[in-house]
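[step 3/7] fold_predict: job queued, chain A
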Amino acid sequence: MTGTAEQMKGRAGRLARLMPSGPSTAARTPFVLLVVLLLAGGLISLLLLNSALNEGSFRLSKLERETTELTDEQQALQRDVDSYSEPDALERRARELGMVPGGSPAFLNPDGTVRGVPERATAEPSPAPAAPAPGTGAAGPSAQAPPSGSPSPASSASTPAPSATSTPSPSTSPPTSPGR
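[step 4/7] structure written:
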């Protein structure tokens, strides 16, 4: 067993020579501090990057919500415009303003002749309005439209009557031209 003790001494001696514990420990301290500072700086920068990404995510979700609200509002406004552009709504609004449908049009040719027969626009009887739904309490279109037998005062004031001196010229046929 004495051989093993000597072998242990020999191993310990070799280990002591390989890893000295004296002045070399002081030389490792700056390296360890540098590694620790690099790791701490990396962790802090990851934390800042993560919080910046979260802030951007919150802003993005807010903008998406605003976009959805504005899209809904735009669609509601488009529905309103479409409902006002329907022919029935246009006709009802025109009648409320005292307008009446025009008859056959008459055109002035470049040479001053009249093509067609000019007529005064008169109020025609409006089509039978649909009965309002029960419980709506609406007076219906008849309360808004002028009486069908006579034109409203607004329409007679806005539509001048044809004078007796402006009779159509004898040439009421359209001019012929080779290009048309």
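[step 5/7] annotate
The chain has a mean pLDDT of 74.
The first strand starts at residue 107 and ends at 108.
exit 0
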